[in-house]
Amino acid sequence: MQYKVIIPAAGSGSRMGAGFNKLFLKIKNSPIIELTIKIFGEDQRCNEIILPIKEAEKHLFETLNLPNSIKQKITYVQGGSERQESVYNGLLSIKDAADYVLVHDGARPFVSKDVIERILERLNDHQAVICAVPMKDTIKKVIDDQVVETIDRSTLWGVQTPQAFTYECLVQAHQKAIQNGFLGTDDASLVEWNGQVVSVVNGDYNNIKVTTKEDLFFAETIYEQYRD
Ligand code: C5P
């Protein structure tokens, strides 16, 4: 199965507080985004890596230490003011409606081959597939420093990326969301909102999204354990 991956990379990473795009923070000498791109660049089934970016940062992406075989797969598109818009701009650049599309956050540099494998396998008979892990903590709804409700954890999952879709399924969901002003925090939420089934496979607790400063410590540990 051939697929394209959209890796939105146009964020500012305000929760990281680095003062620049957090995707260029280094984990053991490699920028986060370089690690993320390599995972898909090395997968023979991935025939295009679409990167929504800020134009002003293009030179930074172009100087990433990637082999030519991976650089040739990259298409840059204009990022949007929201992640959703960045992904949609990526979708608009796709010419072949027959393709499968994966969307993966640039800030998740540790997605394993096993997770990608599980997703692609499930995509054989589903239009939309996400990976997720069961919640470990007790989850409470809190308003104004006060617990409002303790939510039954047994059905709660923490959702990760990649999220995979047929091109038609994802583009339709995005277009309907734009028409109705619906903003989701991930792509699957647009597909759900469009009334379509989203299938779930097991993700991986190591597939973290590097979001805040503490995550950098975990990221270094995961890197040492799992990458060569
Ligand atoms: O900020 P957060 O980590 O949730 O963003 C998830 C991903 O979406 C990041 O890789 C970020 O670069 C990307 N993004 C984007 N365009 C935006 C906002 C975020 O491509 N306007």
From TrEMBL:
Similarity-based family: Belongs to the IspD/TarI cytidylyltransferase family. IspD subfamily.
Enzyme Commission designation: 2.7.7.60
Gene Ontology terms for molecular function: 2-C-methyl-D-erythritol 4-phosphate cytidylyltransferase activity
Protein name stated in the entry: 2-C-methyl-D-erythritol 4-phosphate cytidylyltransferase
Any GO BP: isopentenyl diphosphate biosynthetic process, methylerythritol 4-phosphate pathway
NCBIfam families: ispD (TIGR00453)
Keywords associated with the record: Isoprene biosynthesis, Nucleotidyltransferase, Transferase
EC class: transferase
Function according to Swiss-Prot or TrEMBL: Catalyzes the formation of 4-diphosphocytidyl-2-C-methyl-D-erythritol from CTP and 2-C-methyl-D-erythritol 4-phosphate (MEP).
Residues passing through the membrane, by range: none
Site label Positions MEP for the nucleophilic attack, positions: 153, 209
Pathway it works in: Isoprenoid biosynthesis; isopentenyl diphosphate biosynthesis via DXP pathway; isopentenyl diphosphate from 1-deoxy-D-xylulose 5-phosphate: step 2/6
Site positions for Transition state stabilizer: 15, 22
The reaction(s) this protein catalyses: 2-C-methyl-D-erythritol 4-phosphate + CTP + H(+) = 4-CDP-2-C-methyl-D-erythritol + diphosphate
